[in-house]
Amino acid sequence: xxxxxxxxxxxxxxxxxxxxxxxxxxxxxxxxxxxxxxxxxxxxxxxxxxxxxxxxxxxxxxxxxxxxxxxxxxxxxxxxxxxxxxxxxxxxxxxxxxxxxxxxxxxxxxxxxxxxxxxxxxxxxxxxxxxxxxxxxxxxxxxxxxxxxxxxxxxxxxxxxxxxxxxxxxxxxxxxxxxxxxxxxxxxxxxxxxxxxxxxxxxxxxxxxxxxxxxxxxxxxxxxxxxxxxxxxxxxxxxxxxxxxxxxxxxxxxxxx
Length: 257
Known about the structure:
Blueprint: E1 2-16, E2 35-38, E3 50-55, E4 58-61, E5 64-82, E6 85-103, E7 109-112, H1 133-139, E8 144-150, E9 153-169, E10 175-190, E11 197-202, E12 218-219, E13 222-223, H2 248-251
């Protein structure tokens, strides 16, 4: 007697930022509004979507988080009865698919601090209470920023199993079940899409003075001049300039103010 069967199971978990049809000059080639944070007294509420992650200077500005999983299995069994023996031979095949993308930081993050527009003397006891983070925002003086990209990763694996079983009836009271199973488990491998990571970050820093033209900020990967300049009626310049087709070196290239 021959029996066969097949089954599948799938699971999809995801979050999407609905603010994904905007054009924001401060985030190159971005279509999602970035996360904008403020600190200090009378600070406005944050704008954008917090992805729930934090790295060094900044919370993550989320665009999309997706984890799609699919499992397929097929089984075939042959049963043969001869005398006091009942033999079962079989094979099991499994195939697993997982496509995942975790873009917690893809929309970009800008942090604005009240310290930027506080008294020029950082030793002043009121340095931590003077100034306004919203005023820093209107002046375009970002205290810190971050943007990280990640492509969709496609994972695949296979598993094979072979087995044989003998049910041997010794007498009316004793029945023996003897069997052997061999499994071949193939580790997960990545599909055609290769994941990559690019970072543009402006380090958090306290400014002791506020000159007419603020000093440029250094990034973790090089000089990224003019962190984010903004004024009423103007948008942030390309402080976090990371085109989707750029390399890490191109991503950290200086951007003129």
